[in-house]
Each structure stands twice: as C-alpha cells, then as structure tokens.
Amino acid sequence: MISSSALKLSCPIPNGDFETSPLGGFPSEASAVRDGPTAIPSWKLNGTVELVESGEKQGGMILIVPQGRHAVRLGNDAEISQDLTVEKGAVYSVTFSAARTCAQLEALNVSAGTASMTIDLQTLYNVQGWDPYAVAYEAESDDITLAFRNPGMEDDPTCGPIIDDISIKKLFSPDRPKDNAVLNGDFEEGPWVPKNVSLGVLLPTNLDEELSPLPGWNVESNRAVRYIDSYHYSVPQGKRAIELLSGKEGIISQMVETSPNKMYTLTFALGHAGDKCKEPLAVMAFAGDQAQNIHYTPDSNSTFHTTSLNFTSKAERTRVAFYSIYYNTRSDDMSSLCGPVIDDVRVWFSSSPRNGIGGLGMRLVIAILVLVLVLV
C-alpha cells in the first residue's frame, strides 16, 4: 500500500502505467510462459482483464495505448483494483487515461470505497483516440480500494475500454480571498496533470462542489470541460485554466456568497488556448439573473482579455456559470474539440450603480454641476 504521507502530494499509484513486467514477462515477449491469465503487479483482477501493447491488433483494429508501451483492457464486467492507504476525510482526485475499443457504447465505472462514478466514453474529444480524465472522492477510511470496472456486456467478451497512466492527488480547498467571493477562481488547485500529456485533463459531470476534482466548481452538463496547463497551452495567468468544450453541453458553475440586494461585478479573463482552435470563440457568462454573450477579440499582443458583468444579488448565494457559445474544433484536424479559455474569475462588491455613473463618474458630474453654479 501507499502510505498516507506519500499521498499528501501528487503521485502515480504503483504500476499505474502498467509498465512493470509481470512474473514471466509481458504476454508479447517470446520468453513468456504462463498458464492462465497474466497477473499484473500491484493489481487485483476480476474477469477478462488483458495487458495490451502499443501497436497490437485485434482483427483490423489497432489497439490504442495512451502512454508508454502497455495498458490494460477490461472485458465484459471485468475489474481491476488496488488497495491504498490514505487520510480519512480527505478528498482525492484520480487522474487516468481511457480509450475505446470495439464496443459502440463504452463506459467506465471508477470507484473508491463505496463511492462510484460511471464515465461515458462515447464522446471522443480528440483525434488521438484517447482522453485523460479526473474524478474526485472523499476517503471514508484510512484504507480504500480504488477500482476500475467495465459495466458493459458485449457479444465479444474482450470488447471494452483501455485504461492507463493512473495517478492520485490529495486536494486542498483554497482559502477564499478577502476581495473575491469566488473560490479557486484562478483554477490553480485541481487534479494532477501529467507533464508528458499534452491533452489537458477532462473533468466530467460532477454536481457536488464538495467532491469536485476542481475545488469549488461544478461541471453541470453531460459533456466535460478541459483542465489545461501552461506547459502545453496559453493560460491567461498562473499555470492552470479551463477550456470550455461542446457549447451548452459543457457548463462550469459555482455558487458564491453574496449579500442580498447588493451590487456586484463579475470579472474574468477570456482567451484562446493557442491550440489552433477555430474562431469565433465566445462564452455565455451568468451571474444571478444576468447573462451576457461575450466574444473573444484577438489581440496581437495577448491571447486573452479581461471582461466584466454587473449584477445585483438576490440572495445569500449567487450562481456564476460559463459555457461556450459555439461548438469549436481545431483547424488542423477539424475533429478535436476545443473552445474559449476562462481564468482569473472574480466576484467583488461594487458600490457603483449599474449604469456606471459612480465613483469617479459621479465625482465628475458633481464637479460639472458646481462649475455651472459658479458660472451662473
């Protein structure tokens, strides 16, 4: 087992990349001699579980291995699991890569203890044939079982998802800034993003902000959003941001604390990820009962600009949300999903009236009136 101290930071789990050689070698090795299924070091197996190798074929189909030379394919109702020692009550994110094979409707169930989540693999977000995902769970005890199961039942019992490159990270809830009602508005706290992966990490639907792989935020819709890093994408500030995918089917939101009947301003950075995403790029931004369609305007000096939306709160909690107006794809392959980037989201109290005549504007109006009276 991994010790609880080891899980305080990001780390791959033992043989999470499936590159550790089984006893007797990998199935494709000429010297490998074994009876029955191959045992996979550090993992418990149930059902038809296969180690597959990059370039391996099944009929006329080449099996996709996301990282390295080897990965695992789960057949009908098959499962792999591993016992981990963690910190009871802490929230952990699990990052992994998944690819489809020969089934039409493939899904993957990921569980930690009694909590589980099923991810639909029907949508392929890029032309490489696989996607990284992240989910989050609260540790119910110091010892948990992390399991991946194929819930499908196909005529070909070997059909099923391929998984690879599994890591785990303890999540921390960032302190709420004094001048910002948004928690984790800079998106710096989130799941583990492998530096050798240039696809970002997909965050599937998650309606519980307490158990989100992106602390403070929910993904409300039936499609994922992409968590991106500055190593592979253009990020407005810091090292992390969110790329909105699939139009209205990819909504990210947060309930922020507000005072009823007070004026607030929502500001955020809107930009281009630098991933050859076809323009136009635009978001629909929501703050309470206000909504605004905002387009990204290219600038030769920057890949993003800051925009704002004024609103009056109606309650002690106000919903802030974003989705992409368009269904964008990359110009180099015309298939990989992409979209506008948001970052540095802030909600702050504004004493200015909605028409903008306040502060400096109000002082200017008063000065003009005084001047008129003096001249009269």
Automatic annotation (TrEMBL):
SUPFAM superfamilies reported in the protein's UniProt record: Galactose-binding domain-like
Subcellular location(s) of the protein: Secreted, Cell wall
Membrane spanning stretches: 356-375
Keyword presence, Transmembrane helix: yes
Keywords, alphabetical: Cell wall, Glycoprotein, Membrane, Secreted, Signal, Transmembrane, Transmembrane helix
CC annotations in GO: plasma membrane
Main location: secreted
Top-rank lineage group of the source organism: Eukaryota
UniProt-listed InterPro entries: DGR2-like_dom (IPR006946), Galactose-bd-like_sf (IPR008979), Pectin_Meth_Modulator (IPR052437)
Residue ranges of domain DUF642 in the record: 13-169, 182-347
PANTHER family in the record: OS01G0756600 PROTEIN (PTHR31265:SF1), OS02G0527500 PROTEIN-RELATED (PTHR31265)
Name of protein: DUF642 domain-containing protein
Organism: Ficus carica (Common fig)
